[in-house]
Amino acid sequence: MNKRPLYFDYAATTPVDERVIQVMVQCLGFDGNFGNPASSSHAFGQEARRAVEQARGQVAQLVGAQAGQIVWTSGATESNNLALKGVAQAHGSRKGHLVTSLIEHKAVLDTVKQLEEGGVAVTWLAPDADGLISAQAVREALREDTFLVSLMLVNNELGTVNDAVAIGEIVREHGALFHMDAAQGAGKVSIDLARWPVDLMSFSAHKIYGPKGIGALYVGDRARPRLLAQIHGGGHEGGLRSGTLATHQIAAMGAAFELAAQSFDEELAHIARLRNRLLEPLLALPGVCINGSATQRIAHTLSLTFNEGEFNPAALGDSIAFSATSACNSANNAPSHVLLALGHDERAASRTIRLSLGRYTHEQDIDEAVRLIKAACAAAPAFWATPT
Ligand SMILES: *Cc1c(COP(=O)(O)O)cnc(C)c1O
Q1: Which pLDDT band holds residue 388 (cuts at 50, 70, 90)?
Q2: Is 328 annotated in the active site?
Q3: CATH says 6-14+264-382 is which class?
């Protein structure tokens, strides 16, 4: 087998932690916990139900929620769909007004566009120069008929962190609901839903060392009566999301969230050290700049734009696995909507890379990546600057 590239794309997905895999496989075979959690009449079902409820508690614990406020979904995409469509539908024929931003994940952008086509009025907020949505911008966007504000906690391309509390207070004062996509925030930002004025929050397991295909939506008490199910059939999850619960996925997500809680401080310190080791030599290169706020950010995700004519991302070839943009955009190779909203043109966007670090990044990986990126700068062809 060829040597695999260095992995610098933890924001796209993470490997499943070995300890999480152990929990997961115990929920599959005949000797394991394979029952249907809805089969309440026998021990197999009851044991599966216990695993599901334990996991619900583990997810709730990391984010300061109550277990009963966590609804299982197939991932953050579905959580976003449930939050946005579910609230809009409950709001009903009044249509009304929704506030979101231009730099949301596609799972929010495309869902809001769908609602917009259905007659909901939408304000698309632009980020400030730091890649943040200010509380003031939200305040100015609110209208009498605004029923929902949806903004991400952590931007998946920039690593910037919106001020959930300041924005939430304004939304709450107004009376609308506040949804946050926190797929990139869980385990990286200290989240306290018991205190935060946030009504709905989306999570995904595979950004936090759990498996793909499982996520959750936090539904706070204000949001519960203002949310309608989007998937029907059996009335699971208090009627909010039908479908047989995937015990192995759910138990794994719970284990992943518990591990994140246990190692929270240690992991953040580890990532910050690695980020500094990476950034220092790269910022010494001529004309390299970081996109997004230098202070309101997580250390895990870095978006770097290189100087015209001084960087050839193709030269990184198969040696580093990174994203030119987010994994979700790269399917169609379009320039990043986030970078365009920040004021970059398409050519600057093409000289931008996202490097994201995680649990299995070692110091040697950092040093090797720095060496490779420096070489890619040296290898930039003179014609790179020529418009095409
Ligand atoms: C990855 C991601 C999603 C999608 O999550 P899935 O679980 O893959 O559906 C949504 N929003 C953000 C910000 C993400 O990073």
Answers
A1: very low
A2: yes
A3: alpha beta
